[in-house]
Amino acid sequence: MTSTTPRPARHRSLGDHTWRDQAVCQSIEHNPVDPEIFFPDPDETDKITAAKALCNQCPVRRVCLDAALEGNDAHGIRGGLTEEERGPLHTKIAQRLDYSRVNETIAAGRDVHLTIAERTAVVQAAYHHGLTTQRLAWLLKVTEEHAKKLYRQHRHALDHRELNQPETGTATSEAGGEHLSRDDFGTAA
Ligand code: SF4
After folding, report:
1. What is the CA radius of gyration of the chain?
2. Which end of the chain has fewer beta carbons closer than 10 Å to its terminal beta carbon, N or C?
3. What pLDDT, on a 0 to 100 scale, did the predictor assign at position 11?
4. Is the Cβ–Cβ distance between 154 and 133 less than 8 Å?
């Protein structure tokens, strides 16, 4: 029997904005912050330095950056990075394949941000663990009919995977059929 000791959540749930309560850029009576410093022009180095100094001491810096990337928020300084510094990360996030997110979705049923590649990995892991189409539909917030289609596509890909199987670490669609390179999905209950 697999241990069901819950692991602490690593990723922000979609729609959870409670982290903002800890943001040091929140202007309060005894700690006024000029919000304009977070929207500097590229040559306004004083503003950039001041904003980054706040971000450097912010306890939610990482989640702030994640939220900006996941929400495609390309404006202003977020998570200690300027718009220009964040640009390549916005491009790169589409290719992210973070198995801890897949794990939190499958094992804990958490509603975290998933890229297309991560949704594909969820389908693969759900299939591997024998989850029902109803459960898969709930996890991915799709209809049960669509979940059935995803499983059909995955089965079809499995039938053909011996033909070409170089693992690239990325997937191209929700049920593209690339095999999992890890099997660390915990208890898929
Ligand atoms: S990391 Fe910076 S922008 Fe984000 S919440 Fe903290 S202080 Fe504000």
Report:
1. 20
2. N
3. 85
4. no
Single-letter code of the amino acid located at 97: L
Report whether residue 24 contacts ligand 1, using a CB cutoff of 6 Å: yes
Look at residue 146 in the predicted model and tell me its pLDDT.
96
Helix/strand/coil for 114: coil
Low-confidence residues in the chain, pLDDT < 50: 1-3, 169-173, 175-189
Q: Quick check: pTM over 0.70?
A: yes
Query: Cα–Cα distance between 120 and 136 in angstroms, integer?
Result: 11
Q: Which two tokens stand for residue 66?
A: 């994640």
Spatial neighbors of 62 by CB under 8 A, at least 6 apart, are 79
What's the confidence (pLDDT) of residue 44?
A: 95
Specify the amino acid at residue 114.
L
pLDDT in the model for residue 63: 92
Count the residues in the chain: 189
Ligand 1 atom, smallest distance to 23 CA = 5
Cβ–Cβ < 8 Å for 124, 100? no
Contact indicator for 21, 27 with CB cutoff of 8 Å:
no
| H helix intervals, 93-132 | 99-108, 116-128
- pLDDT score for 2: 46
Q: Are 63 and 19 in contact (CB under 8 A)?
A: yes
Q: Identify whether the C-beta of residue 3 lies closer than 8 Å to the C-beta of residue 100.
A: no
Q: Which two tokens stand for residue 75?
A: 């404006």
Say if ligand 1 is within 6 A of residue 37 CB: no
